[in-house]
Amino acid sequence: GHLFNQVWNPTGEPLVPSIRWEALRAGIQDAHLLMWLQAALKQDRLHGDEIARAQACLDTARSIAEGKSELTDASVAQLSRELREVYVASWSRSPTPPPRCPRAESPGSA
């Protein structure tokens, strides 16, 4: 197993992620993507429809955070998918690989 498993799990029992931990992980990944999109917009690294899609993601996230839009599993899943799709699209024309982005390899997964 992984070194951290030996340090933090001295009994050696299998570690099974809970739904709560998976949701936390996904939320952190979405937050990283939102911060990346914000920076990419400010630095003019997006082109064409990526700009509008990125701004729509930021607007949606802001609307949900401010309570102006309903927070549902479906709305969060849709935002998460769109974040990853915009991220992948922005790097598809780049000759260099993108910085590591969680789950960006499969934009359709949520």
Strand residue content: under 5%
- Give the helix/strand class: mainly alpha
Largest sheet: none
Distance between the termini: 27 Å
Can you describe this structure in just a few lines?
The protein has 110 residues and is mainly alpha-helical.
Structural summary, described in words:
This protein has 110 residues and is an all-alpha fold. The chain has helices spanning 3-8, 19-42, 49-65, 73-92. The longest helix is centred in the first third of the chain and has 24 residues, at 19-42. The chain is extended and about 55 Å long. Mean pLDDT is 81; it is low at 102-110.
Notable traits:
110 residues; mainly alpha; 4 helices; disordered C terminus
Task: Chart the SSEs and their pairings.
Blueprint: H1 3-8, H2 19-42, H3 49-65, H4 73-92
